[in-house]
Protein backbone atom coordinates (compact mmCIF):
# COMPACT_ATOMS: atom_id res chain seq x y z
CA UNK A 1 0.00 0.00 0.00
CA UNK A 2 1.30 3.42 -0.97
CA UNK A 3 -0.19 6.70 0.22
CA UNK A 4 0.62 10.08 -1.24
CA UNK A 5 0.23 13.73 -0.33
CA UNK A 6 0.54 16.89 -2.35
CA UNK A 7 2.32 19.33 -0.08
CA UNK A 8 2.22 23.10 -0.59
CA UNK A 9 4.81 25.40 0.96
CA UNK A 10 3.94 29.08 1.42
CA UNK A 11 6.91 31.22 2.39
CA UNK A 12 6.28 33.42 5.42
CA UNK A 13 9.36 35.59 5.08
CA UNK A 14 12.71 35.63 3.32
CA UNK A 15 14.38 32.30 2.53
CA UNK A 16 17.96 32.45 1.34
CA UNK A 17 20.56 29.95 0.15
CA UNK A 18 22.99 30.08 -2.76
CA UNK A 19 21.56 28.03 -5.63
CA UNK A 20 24.15 29.61 -7.89
CA UNK A 21 26.77 32.31 -7.59
CA UNK A 22 27.48 34.67 -10.49
CA UNK A 23 30.26 37.11 -9.65
CA UNK A 24 29.15 38.78 -6.43
CA UNK A 25 25.50 37.74 -6.83
CA UNK A 26 24.26 34.84 -4.68
CA UNK A 27 20.97 33.74 -6.24
CA UNK A 28 18.23 31.71 -4.56
CA UNK A 29 16.21 29.89 -7.20
CA UNK A 30 12.64 28.76 -6.41
CA UNK A 31 13.51 25.09 -5.93
CA UNK A 32 14.10 23.23 -2.67
CA UNK A 33 16.07 19.99 -2.97
CA UNK A 34 14.87 16.98 -1.04
CA UNK A 35 18.29 16.94 0.62
CA UNK A 36 16.94 19.93 2.59
CA UNK A 37 13.30 18.85 2.90
CA UNK A 38 14.05 15.59 4.73
CA UNK A 39 15.69 17.60 7.52
CA UNK A 40 13.18 20.46 7.48
CA UNK A 41 10.25 18.03 7.82
CA UNK A 42 11.91 16.25 10.71
CA UNK A 43 12.38 12.96 8.86
CA UNK A 44 16.15 13.14 9.36
CA UNK A 45 18.53 14.90 11.71
CA UNK A 46 22.24 15.56 11.31
CA UNK A 47 25.08 16.10 13.73
CA UNK A 48 25.01 19.29 15.76
CA UNK A 49 28.81 19.59 15.54
CA UNK A 50 30.39 18.49 12.27
CA UNK A 51 34.14 17.96 12.32
CA UNK A 52 34.38 15.70 9.27
CA UNK A 53 32.85 18.10 6.70
CA UNK A 54 31.50 15.11 4.76
CA UNK A 55 27.84 14.70 3.69
CA UNK A 56 25.88 12.26 5.85
CA UNK A 57 22.62 12.16 3.87
CA UNK A 58 22.63 8.39 3.47
CA UNK A 59 23.22 7.65 7.16
CA UNK A 60 20.77 10.33 8.32
CA UNK A 61 17.92 9.00 6.15
CA UNK A 62 18.67 5.29 6.38
CA UNK A 63 15.75 4.64 8.78
CA UNK A 64 13.12 6.32 6.59
CA UNK A 65 14.39 6.03 3.01
CA UNK A 66 12.36 2.89 2.18
CA UNK A 67 9.22 4.19 3.89
CA UNK A 68 9.11 7.88 2.91
CA UNK A 69 10.02 9.53 -0.36
CA UNK A 70 10.01 13.31 -0.65
CA UNK A 71 10.35 14.94 -4.06
CA UNK A 72 12.11 18.28 -4.44
CA UNK A 73 9.82 21.33 -4.24
CA UNK A 74 9.14 23.39 -7.35
CA UNK A 75 7.03 26.52 -7.96
CA UNK A 76 3.32 25.77 -7.94
CA UNK A 77 1.38 26.08 -11.18
CA UNK A 78 -0.34 29.20 -9.88
CA UNK A 79 2.97 31.10 -9.66
CA UNK A 80 5.47 29.55 -12.03
CA UNK A 81 9.26 30.07 -12.00
CA UNK A 82 8.99 33.49 -13.65
CA UNK A 83 6.50 34.85 -11.11
CA UNK A 84 8.24 33.83 -7.90
CA UNK A 85 8.54 36.77 -5.50
CA UNK A 86 12.25 37.45 -5.14
CA UNK A 87 14.00 40.30 -3.37
CA UNK A 88 17.44 41.60 -4.38
CA UNK A 89 19.56 43.46 -1.86
CA UNK A 90 23.13 44.78 -1.71
CA UNK A 91 25.25 44.33 1.36
CA UNK A 92 28.55 45.87 2.45
CA UNK A 93 29.63 44.49 5.78
CA UNK A 94 32.52 43.17 7.76
CA UNK A 95 33.39 39.51 7.45
CA UNK A 96 31.05 36.97 9.08
CA UNK A 97 33.72 34.30 9.44
CA UNK A 98 33.26 31.97 12.40
CA UNK A 99 36.77 32.76 13.61
CA UNK A 100 38.96 35.78 12.95
CA UNK A 101 42.68 35.75 13.60
CA UNK A 102 43.66 38.70 15.77
CA UNK A 103 47.12 39.91 14.82
CA UNK A 104 49.19 42.42 16.68
CA UNK A 105 49.34 45.88 15.12
CA UNK A 106 52.86 45.22 13.89
CA UNK A 107 52.10 41.82 12.33
CA UNK A 108 48.65 42.39 10.78
CA UNK A 109 49.03 41.62 7.01
CA UNK A 110 45.90 43.65 6.21
CA UNK A 111 46.74 46.68 8.33
CA UNK A 112 47.03 49.05 5.35
CA UNK A 113 44.20 47.57 3.27
CA UNK A 114 40.50 48.37 3.17
CA UNK A 115 38.82 45.01 2.53
CA UNK A 116 35.02 45.34 2.67
CA UNK A 117 32.77 42.32 2.16
CA UNK A 118 30.14 43.33 -0.34
CA UNK A 119 27.87 41.76 -2.90
CA UNK A 120 24.24 41.13 -3.78
CA UNK A 121 21.73 38.52 -2.63
CA UNK A 122 18.54 37.54 -4.43
CA UNK A 123 16.25 35.70 -2.02
CA UNK A 124 12.76 34.23 -1.99
CA UNK A 125 10.40 36.71 -0.39
CA UNK A 126 7.08 36.37 1.41
CA UNK A 127 4.17 34.70 -0.38
CA UNK A 128 5.97 32.27 -2.68
CA UNK A 129 4.14 29.00 -3.23
CA UNK A 130 5.98 25.76 -3.97
CA UNK A 131 4.76 22.18 -4.29
CA UNK A 132 6.28 18.79 -3.59
CA UNK A 133 4.97 15.25 -3.25
CA UNK A 134 5.33 12.84 -0.35
CA UNK A 135 5.01 9.08 -0.82
CA UNK A 136 4.49 6.80 2.18
CA UNK A 137 4.95 3.08 1.63
CA UNK A 138 3.02 0.91 4.08
CA UNK A 139 1.18 3.94 5.49
CA UNK A 140 -2.32 5.32 5.10
CA UNK A 141 -2.88 8.92 3.98
CA UNK A 142 -3.99 9.80 7.52
CA UNK A 143 -0.84 8.34 9.06
CA UNK A 144 1.24 10.19 6.49
CA UNK A 145 -0.43 13.52 7.26
CA UNK A 146 0.36 13.09 10.96
CA UNK A 147 4.07 12.93 10.08
CA UNK A 148 4.03 16.36 8.40
CA UNK A 149 4.50 19.50 10.57
CA UNK A 150 2.42 22.64 10.03
CA UNK A 151 5.47 24.88 9.59
CA UNK A 152 9.08 24.28 8.62
CA UNK A 153 12.24 26.39 8.37
CA UNK A 154 14.55 26.41 5.38
CA UNK A 155 17.67 28.10 4.09
CA UNK A 156 20.78 29.59 5.61
CA UNK A 157 18.83 32.01 7.80
CA UNK A 158 16.11 29.47 8.70
CA UNK A 159 13.26 31.22 6.90
CA UNK A 160 9.74 30.09 7.77
CA UNK A 161 7.26 28.36 5.47
CA UNK A 162 3.71 27.19 6.09
CA UNK A 163 2.90 23.59 5.13
CA UNK A 164 -0.46 22.46 3.72
CA UNK A 165 -1.28 18.89 2.63
CA UNK A 166 -3.85 17.27 0.37
CA UNK A 167 -4.30 13.46 0.13
CA UNK A 168 -4.05 11.95 -3.35
CA UNK A 169 -5.24 8.79 -5.05
CA UNK A 170 -2.40 6.46 -6.05
CA UNK A 171 -2.50 4.02 -8.96
CA UNK A 172 0.26 1.86 -10.41
CA UNK A 173 1.29 1.19 -13.98
CA UNK A 174 4.06 -0.24 -16.10
CA UNK A 175 5.29 1.02 -19.46
CA UNK A 176 6.45 4.30 -20.93
CA UNK A 177 5.64 7.41 -18.91
CA UNK A 178 6.61 11.06 -18.63
CA UNK A 179 7.97 12.44 -15.39
CA UNK A 180 5.36 14.78 -13.92
CA UNK A 181 7.43 16.56 -11.27
CA UNK A 182 11.17 17.15 -10.71
CA UNK A 183 13.11 14.46 -8.85
CA UNK A 184 16.71 14.17 -7.74
CA UNK A 185 19.10 12.85 -10.38
CA UNK A 186 20.04 9.91 -8.11
CA UNK A 187 16.51 9.07 -6.88
CA UNK A 188 15.65 6.31 -9.38
CA UNK A 189 17.47 3.40 -10.97
CA UNK A 190 15.54 3.91 -14.21
CA UNK A 191 17.42 5.45 -17.13
CA UNK A 192 15.65 8.19 -19.13
CA UNK A 193 14.75 7.15 -22.68
CA UNK A 194 14.13 10.66 -24.01
CA UNK A 195 13.02 14.26 -23.43
CA UNK A 196 15.63 14.71 -20.71
CA UNK A 197 16.02 18.15 -19.16
CA UNK A 198 18.19 18.61 -16.08
CA UNK A 199 18.97 21.51 -13.79
CA UNK A 200 22.29 21.90 -12.06
CA UNK A 201 21.95 22.41 -8.32
CA UNK A 202 24.04 21.62 -5.27
CA UNK A 203 24.54 19.07 -3.83
CA UNK A 204 22.52 17.07 -6.40
CA UNK A 205 21.17 17.97 -9.86
CA UNK A 206 17.46 17.89 -10.65
CA UNK A 207 15.75 15.96 -13.43
CA UNK A 208 13.16 18.48 -14.56
CA UNK A 209 11.56 16.35 -17.26
CA UNK A 210 12.21 12.96 -18.82
CA UNK A 211 10.53 9.97 -20.43
CA UNK A 212 11.04 6.57 -18.80
CA UNK A 213 10.17 2.93 -19.45
CA UNK A 214 9.24 0.89 -16.38
CA UNK A 215 7.05 0.76 -13.30
CA UNK A 216 5.49 4.01 -12.16
CA UNK A 217 2.91 5.45 -9.78
CA UNK A 218 0.32 8.02 -10.81
CA UNK A 219 -0.92 10.58 -8.31
CA UNK A 220 -4.31 12.23 -8.87
CA UNK A 221 -6.62 14.42 -6.81
CA UNK A 222 -9.27 12.43 -4.94
CA UNK A 223 -12.11 11.52 -7.27
CA UNK A 224 -10.55 13.29 -10.26
CA UNK A 225 -10.53 11.87 -13.78
CA UNK A 226 -7.76 14.21 -14.93
CA UNK A 227 -4.29 12.99 -15.80
CA UNK A 228 -2.13 12.75 -12.71
CA UNK A 229 1.51 13.20 -11.76
CA UNK A 230 3.63 10.23 -12.75
CA UNK A 231 6.74 9.26 -10.79
CA UNK A 232 9.05 6.21 -10.92
CA UNK A 233 7.68 3.48 -8.64
CA UNK A 234 11.16 2.90 -7.20
CA UNK A 235 11.67 6.58 -6.30
CA UNK A 236 13.89 6.58 -3.21
CA UNK A 237 16.06 9.34 -1.81
CA UNK A 238 19.54 8.93 -3.35
CA UNK A 239 18.56 5.44 -4.57
CA UNK A 240 21.57 4.93 -6.82
CA UNK A 241 24.00 6.03 -4.08
CA UNK A 242 22.88 3.45 -1.50
UniProtKB/TrEMBL annotation:
It holds the Pfam family Cas_Csc1. It comes from the Archaea. InterPro entries: CRISPR-assoc_prot_Csc1. This is CRISPR-associated protein Csc1. The lineage of its organism: Archaea, Methanobacteriati, Methanobacteriota, Stenosarchaea group, Halobacteria.
